Amino acid sequence: MIRTARLAQVLEHALRAPSVHNTQPWRWRLGDDVVDLFADVGRRLPVTDPDGRDLTISCGAALHHLVVALGHAGHDTFVKPMPDPQNDTHLATVTISDAPPDPATARLFGAVARRHTELRRMRCQPVPVALQAALVDAAHRFDVRMVRANGVREAFNAAFAAAAERELWTSGHTTELHIPSRRTATHHHSPGPPLGYRLPDDGAEFFMLATSEDRTQDWLRAGQALSSVLLTAAQAGLATTPLSRGHDMGTQHLAGGETAAPQIFVRVGWPTARASAPSPSARRDLATVLMRPVDVTVGASAQTEGPARKPVDAS
Fold first, then answer.
1. Is residue 140 part of a domain?
2. What pLDDT sits at residue 252?
3. 158 and 202, same structural domain?
4. Residue 124 maps to a domain
5. pLDDT per residue as tens digits for the range 225-261
6. Low-confidence ranges of the chain (pLDDT < 50)
7. What is the pLDDT of residue 245?
8. Does 90 lie in the same domain as 26?
9. What is the pTM of this model?
10. Is there a single domain that holds both residue 288 and residue 227?
11. Contacts of 83 (CB under 8 A, 6+ apart)
């Protein structure tokens, strides 16, 4: 058995999960041997995320981070998605046991602290096919497809070049990368030639995570798969950038004519040797994401304690 106090300590590691615009849109209810995950609807971004897709994907990533941390602590878990048909903010219930955890999941724990969102250029060195296959397998554990998305590479490179051109002409202005995630590049510039010079393409690969259907539970699985991919990549020394899919994306045709719902994109590559580690992004205190039992009974409107903090860059 894992008591509530110890469980709260383990939960701290789940709070390091990436989230859209670093909104950290999750709430947790703890009990002995059980954790309930709720969406913090007050942190949804109504303009860029009207249906709550990115919010749910973010919560799925935190859910997987929790399972990894519990595995490291020696506990197996059973995750039940969408356990309450009357409450669509109740995204998952995690039941904890003393059975041996999945060793592959537990081994990812060391990557939780190392993983961060890389907004800088990456090395020209390609990602080996074997490592790409490992990432595909990491997503497939959650029944999520991971396929190449070359069109995203072109859009990202164009946005990077446009941002560099703007900074060249706007003295003292912080460059904003208008990529699908709309993250900013503050304090994340790679060392290299002055802006305005043509920089070589890096060796990063772009992938799309896709599900066969497009329901809330599929978004949650996509978030779990995203975390699995990011931690697997960090474990191998790779850098990653999650990119929101954008609102104009429809279904995609995969190999063999199969259709799938795009959920999120991931940029994967090798960090530059001269690039220093970025400063960690701010995280919500544990006390602000823990729910009291009364919070569940009064509805979703009571699940946010005061106004949401101003979003900062995801990490």
1. yes
2. 78
3. yes
4. no
5. 999 999 999 999 999 999 886 545 667 777 667 788 9
6. 167-168, 170-199, 247, 294-313
7. 65
8. yes
9. 0.81
10. no
11. 36, 90, 92, 93
| pLDDT score at 32 | 87
**Which uninterrupted H or E stretch holds 88?**
none
Reported as type and span, the H/E element at residue 134 is helix 129-140
Cβ atoms of 176 and 237 within 8 Å: the answer is no
pLDDT value of position 282: 87
Whole-number pLDDT of residue 130: 97
239 and 180 housed in the same domain: yes
Q: What pLDDT does 156 receive? A: 67
User: Does residue 81 lie in a domain region?
Assistant: yes
Rounded CA separation 102/136 (Å): 18
- Our count of domains for the chain comes to 2
Instruction: Give the structural domain span for 212.
Output: 129-269
Both 291 and 260 in one domain: the answer is no
C-alpha–C-alpha distance, residues 89 and 92, integer Å: 9
Give CA separation, 229 vs 5, 41, 70, 145, 242, in Å. 30, 26, 18, 11, 10
First to last CA, the chain: 32
At 26, give phi and psi (nearest 5°).
-130, 150
143, 264: one domain: yes
CATH assignment of the domain containing 14:
3.40.109.10
Residues 270 and 125: beta-carbon distance below 8 Å: yes
